[in-house]
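A note on notation is needed here, since sequence and fold are reported together in a single record. The reader may check this reading against the record printed directly beneath this paragraph.
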Amino acid sequence: MRTEPLDLLVRAGAFPHEEKQAVYRAIETRRDVRDQFLPDPLPDDLVRRLLQAAHNAPSVGFMQPWNFLLVRSPVTRQTVHAVFLKANAEAEVMFSGEQQERYRALKLEGILKAPLSICVTCDPTRAGSVVLGRTHNPRMDVYSTVCAVQNLWLAARAEGVGVGWVSIFHDSDIRAILGIPNHIEIVAWLCVGFVDQLYGEPELAVKGWRQRLPLEELVFDERWPDVS
């Protein structure tokens, strides 16, 4: 029986205490930034590190389905902001009463304020029609791309860079502005820029939109609980 050559494996183990704490701190203090961006441009080597972190994400079948469209042009970002405002007005009327007032009060200015936007996409054709691990769940390519987004976000937090995920737009509008082919799925529009202040807790919790659910209510043992 053929075995794995030992020289392909590297030693695994827990990180030193300080490094573990840094990882957990990045996770716990990551925020969705909407309005606190500084105008300073991001150095190219820093952007490269963030993209490399994203590219190091796990992907089912090692398909690596992501692409990253870097948008720095103020004209393009202004155009995207306009289509965001259209969709945001549509979203506002879906809420009512006090919730609508809270929605209206949120500052959603990242597209204009952040010096860089990254449109993250997913190419479902990259690894062919039959992909290891995607044979029974066709969405695994998108899930993999979201892992890349999270990697970028955590790396950005460690670098003092804020990230805001914009999802309020019509897919067709962004596709037309950036010339994205029809078979490519748009996963995220990320606003990226330096920040020197962040909310101590998630902004939507601070502003009374929703609160973090207790972990104990979300963890089940062995099987889904019988609620009958």
